[in-house]
C-alpha cells in the first residue's frame, strides 16, 4: 500500500476520562466539598488495597511525594543517595533540595533501569539510600538492589511514578516492605490519572503523622475532619511545611481510574506487543523489552532507540520528521546530568559520577524516543505510526545514498 500522511496530529499520549469520572466530579461540586475530604480518604484506601500496602497517602504530585520521603527519612546536607540519570529530573532535584547529593550509576542498556552491578562501587561512608526508578513501567531488578541495601544498611525508596500496576515477582510495586517507601504519579500521561497527583506507599505506622504534617502546613489533622460536626476547630502547627494536599475533585477521577487500571494496562500490553511484531526485522531501531514473569511490566512507555548511522538521520531529526507526518513522540528522558544545573553540580561533585562515566545512559539518551501508547490508541493509529516511521527512514536513507 502506498504511504499516506495521517490527516490529524496523533499525540504520544492522551488520558482516558469517561462519564463515570465526569459524574463523580459533578457530584463533588454539588456536595459542597471539593478539596481534601472523604473521597480523598476513600481513594487512599483503594490505593492501599490495590497495591497491597498498609498505608498510602496522596498529595499534589509525585514530585512533592518524593520531597516528603526525603524529609521523612531525615536526609541531611552532604548525604549521598544513589540513583540513575535517565529519569525525570524530580528524582534528583528532590534529593538536592534537601542538601543531598544524588550519586549516579549507569543503566542496563537493555532495560534502561539501574544496573545493580554498578551499585557497590558507588557506595561511600556518606551513602544513606538508593532510589531505583522503574522507567517505562518496567520494574528494576529489586532482589539485587535490596540485597546490597541490606548489607550496607541503606534505605530503598522506589520511584514508581511510571509503575502503577507493575509487579515484581508477582507483588505490586510498592508492596514489598524491603523498600521503606515508594512513590506513584497520577500525572495525565501516566497509566491512571487524577489530573495531577501523587502518593507515597509505606509500611511503617510511625511515618503516618509526619507525612500528614509535611503535606499540609505542619498540621496533622485534615481540614475536613476539623470542619465536620464532630471535629474540633482548633489546630496546632508542630513544624513548618508546604501545602500539597490532594482535592476530592482529583479523587473523583482516581476512584474510577483505579477500577479501570488493570483493563487499561491489558490494552497497553496488547499494543506494546503489536508494536514489537510490526517492527520485527527493522534493524534501524532497537526495540524495548516487554519484561518477564519476574519483572511484570505495566507498559507505560514504548521506547524505541534509533540507530542514526543505519537510519540516515539523528534522533532529533527523526522526531521532527515524524511531527511533519503528524505523529507525536516524547523523549523520556534527556539524561539529568546533561541539564545546565546538573552539569555545574557534577563539576563541583565529581565523585558523584562514576570514573568511567555513564556510557549506556548517554548512548540511550541520544537515541531514545517514546511512541504513541495509550489504551484508546487504535490499531489503525498504530499502523500509521509504523508506516510513518518506515517512510521517514526510507526517505532519509535515500538522501544518504544519493
Ligand atoms: C520517573 C518519574 N519520576 C517522577 C515523576 C514526577 O511525577 P509528577 O509529575 O507527578 O510530579 C515522573 C513524572 O513524569 C516520572 O516519570
Structural write-up:
The protein contains 14 helices and 13 strands. With 402 residues, it is an alpha/beta fold. It folds into two domains: 240 residues, Aspartate Aminotransferase, domain 2 (3-Layer(aba) Sandwich), CATH 3.40.640.10; 140 residues, Aspartate Aminotransferase, domain 1, CATH 3.90.1150.10. The strands form three sheets. The chain has a seven-stranded mixed sheet with strand order 1-9-8-5-4-2-3, sandwiched between helices. A three-stranded antiparallel sheet has the order 7-6-11, with no helix packed on it. The chain has a three-stranded antiparallel sheet with strand order 10-12-13. β2, α4 and β3 form a beta-alpha-beta unit. α3 runs parallel beside α4 and α3 packs across α7. The chain starts with 18 loop residues before the first helix and ends with a helix. The chain binds pyridoxal-5'-phosphate. Pyridoxal-5'-phosphate binds next to α3 and α4. Pyridoxal-5'-phosphate (PLP) binds next to α3 and α4.
Which characteristics define this entry?
40% helix, 3-stranded antiparallel beta sheet, single chain, Aspartate Aminotransferase, domain 1, Aspartate Aminotransferase, domain 2, alpha/beta, 402 residues, 7-stranded mixed beta sheet, binds pyridoxal-5'-phosphate, 12% strand
| Number of DSSP E strands | 13
Strand order of the largest sheet: 1-9-8-5-4-2-3
Write the CATH architecture name of the largest domain. 3-Layer(aba) Sandwich
Q: How many discrete domains?
A: 2
The CATH topology of the largest domain is given as Aspartate Aminotransferase, domain 2
Number of helices: 14
- SSE sequence, one letter per element: HHEHEHEHEHEEEEEHHHEEEHHHHEH
Strand portion: 5-15%
* Backbone structural class: alpha/beta
Shape call: globular
- CATH class identity of the largest domain: Alpha Beta
Small molecules held by this entry: pyridoxal-5'-phosphate
Amino acid at each position: 500500500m502506498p504511504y499516506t500522511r495521517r490527516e490529524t496530529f496523533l499525540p504520544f499520549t492522551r488520558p482516558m476520562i469517561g462519564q463515570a469520572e465526569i459524574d463523580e466530579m459533578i457530584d463533588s461540586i454539588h456536595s459542597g466539598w471539593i478539596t481534601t475530604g472523604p473521597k480523598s480518604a476513600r481513594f487512599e484506601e483503594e490505593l492501599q488495597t490495590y497495591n497491597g500496602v498498609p498505608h498510602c497517602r496522596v498529595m499534589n504530585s509525585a514530585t512533592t511525594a518524593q520531597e516528603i520521603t526525603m524529609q521523612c527519612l531525615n536526609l541531611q546536607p552532604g548525604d549521598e543517595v544513589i540513583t540513575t540519570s535517565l529519569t525525570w529530573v524530580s528524582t534528583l532535584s528532590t534529593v538536592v533540595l534537601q542538601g543531598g547529593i544524588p550519586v549516579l550509576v549507569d543503566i542496563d542498556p537493555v532495560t534502561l533501569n539501574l544496573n545493580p552491578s554498578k551499585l557497590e562501587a558507588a557506595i561511600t561512608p556518606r551513602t544513606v539510600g538508593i532510589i531505583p526508578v522503574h522507567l517505562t513501567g518496567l520494574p528494576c531488578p529489586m532482589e539485587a538492589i535490596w540485597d546490597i541495601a541490606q548489607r550496607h544498611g541503606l534505605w530503598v525508596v522506589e520511584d514508581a511514578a511510571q509503575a502503577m500496576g507493575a509487579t515484581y515477582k508477582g507483588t505490586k510495586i510498592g508492596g514489598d516492605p524491603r523498600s521503606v517507601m515508594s512513590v506513584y504519579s497520577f500525572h495525565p500521561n501516566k497509566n491512571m490519572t487524577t489530573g495531577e497527583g501523587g502518593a507515597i506507599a509505606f509500611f511503617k505506622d510511625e511515618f503516618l503523622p509526619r507525612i500528614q504534617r509535611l503535606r499540609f502546613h505542619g498540621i496533622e489533622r485534615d481540614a475536613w475532619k476539623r470542619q465536620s460536626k464532630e471535629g474540633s476547630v482548633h489546630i496546632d502547627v508542630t513544624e513548618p511545611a508546604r501545602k500539597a494536599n490532594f482535592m476530592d475533585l482529583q479523587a473523583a477521577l482516581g476512584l474510577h481510574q483505579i477500577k479501570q487500571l488493570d483493563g487499561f494496562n491489558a490494552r497497553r500490553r496488547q499494543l506494546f506487543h503489536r508494536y514489537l511484531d510490526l517492527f520485527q526485522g527493522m534493524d534501524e531501531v532497537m526495540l524495548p523489552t516487554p519484561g518477564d514473569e519476574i519483572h511484570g511490566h505495566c507498559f507505560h512507555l514504548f521506547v524505541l532507540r534509533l540507530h542514526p548511522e543505519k537510519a540516515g538521520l539523528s534522533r532529533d531529526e527523526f522526531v521532527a520528521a515524524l511531527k511533519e507526518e503528524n505523529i507525536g513522540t516524547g523523549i523520556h528522558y534527556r539524561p539529568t546530568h546533561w541539564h545546565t544545573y546538573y552539569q555545574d553540580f557534577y563539576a563541583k561533585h565529581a565523585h558523584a559520577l562514576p570514573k568511567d562515566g555513564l556510557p549506556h545512559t548517554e548512548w540511550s539518551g541520544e537515541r531514545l524516543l517514546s511512541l504513541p501508547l495509550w489504551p484508546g490508541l487504535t490499531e489503525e493509529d498504530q499502523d500509521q505510526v509504523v508506516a510513518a516511521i518506515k517512510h521517514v527512514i526510507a526517505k532519509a536513507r535515500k538522501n544518504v545514498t544519493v
